[in-house]
Amino acid sequence: MSGQEITDETLVAYLDGALPADAHADVEAALASDAGLAERLAGLGVDVGALKAGFDGLLAEAPTVALPPVTANSNWRPWQAAAAAALFVIGMAAGWGLSGDATPDWHQAVADYQVLYTTETLSATPLDAEARAAGLARVNERLGLTLDADALALDGMAFQRAQMLSHQGAPLAQIAFLDDNGAPIAFCIMKAEERAAREAIEIAGLSASTWAGGGFTYILIGPADASRLDAAAEILQSRMPG
Amino acid sequence: MAKTGETEVREGLEALVPRLWRYALVLTGGHRADADDLTQAAVLRALERAGQFQPGTRLDRWCFTVLASIWKNELRSRAVRRGEGQVPVEEAGLATPDHAHVNILAGEVLTCMTTLPEAMRETMFLVYVEGYSYAEAAERLEIPIGTVMSRLANGRRKLNAAMVER
After folding, report:
1. Are A69 and B122 a contacting pair, CB within 8 Å?
2. Of B130, B148, B129, nearest to B139 (Cα)?
3. How far is the alpha carbon of B54 from chain A, nearest alpha carbon, in Å?
4. How far apart are CA A221 and CA A154, in angstroms?
5. Per-residue pLDDT averaged across B99-116, rounded?
6. Which residue, among A141, A81, A85, has the nearest Cα to A113 in the 3D structure?
7. What ipTM was reported for this prediction?
8. Coil, strand or helix: which one is A172?
């Protein structure tokens, strides 16, 4: 075989030791007699060991993620574990380079979490009315609210479930909706003394409306049209303390 | 009793996080904040989809596929929209003094890797760092094996030239 018939791809396979023995011998023979081929081979030379070593050195710099413990009797569901794992990571987010951002960090934490939601996240594990009410009751108890399904009834957005999360140790209520386009929308509430007028913003590529008053701070967020989301936020605002 | 897919994912996922993050860094071109986001998303998605994992198959490869699919279908466009799809080499996080002092050559190779286009970088990483065979890489990337080999040839040529220049 002449050197010109040997492609660079074959030379790569030769360097990687991936050629069958006879083809390997053919390349070796051609290299001995063809200086041009030897030059091409040299141009493909990479210290693969150094490459591997460099990448192995990165492993020690990786962030850690702790998954929630599973107890022998727990009735474990993937989305619950996912929620718990996300919580842990969000707790670390401050050290991961989100600082220096004007967005209040709980808004950013909610956005980072919400961006992972898909239609499936909510639709794959639908809750019945009783389970939804139980979730709301926990939210009401933890935050001192009096929410019910009527307070969350919105045109084009269906209430899916309510659950308690936490942000930096403080309780955070997450009330999940699916809009009629299948977009997952979250209405999140934390206790706060501040007051702030309602404002439509964009965080992490998501539309959001935020406001605060009456002892709480609120955000409605999701991958939806900003004006539509803000209209829903206006209705929720009228029904909430503040 | 044989383990279920869910159990295997739960038990094995945490230990895989550093390798998932390293792959995420390769995909994001060394952009650490994006790599963190991508790793977090992949861990969540792997837990959500744990029931789909076939017990006894390679969990690392399965998780890599999950991570790459999130990057390609969801997060890459966001990163590119922000104008952060390409990170200037000097800001890219692949090479840091931490490991450069361990092995200067390794650090330089890493820095050079960030200059390669994403597809080339990813193929080189899968084959030379994670030990995928050409056929396995072709399957993972959903491209013909010949394309894997030409990406490796182009990647090697560029890396070789970049190292010679330094």
Report:
1. no
2. B148
3. 16
4. 15
5. 66
6. A85
7. 0.84
8. strand
| Selected residue of A9, A16, A59, A203 to mutate for chain B interface (largest B Cβ count, 10 A) | A9
B155/A230 Cα distance (integer angstroms): 48
Distance from CA of B48 to the nearest CA of A (A): 5
Structure-token pair, residue B58: 């390679």
Asked if B153 and A205 come within 8 Å (Cβ–Cβ), the reply is: no
List all residues 6 or more positions away from A60 whose beta carbon is below 8 Å from its beta carbon.
Answer: B18, B98, B99
- What are the start-end ranges of the H helices in B28-72? 32-48, 59-70
CA distance B2 to A215: 52
CA dihedral A232, A234, A240, A242 (to 10 degrees): 160
Distance CA B82, CA B66 (A): 23
Q: What value, to the nearest 5°, has the Cα angle with vertex B24 and ends B20 and A122?
A: 80
Which pTM value belongs to this model?
0.57
pLDDT band at residue A124 using 50, 70 and 90 as cut-offs: low
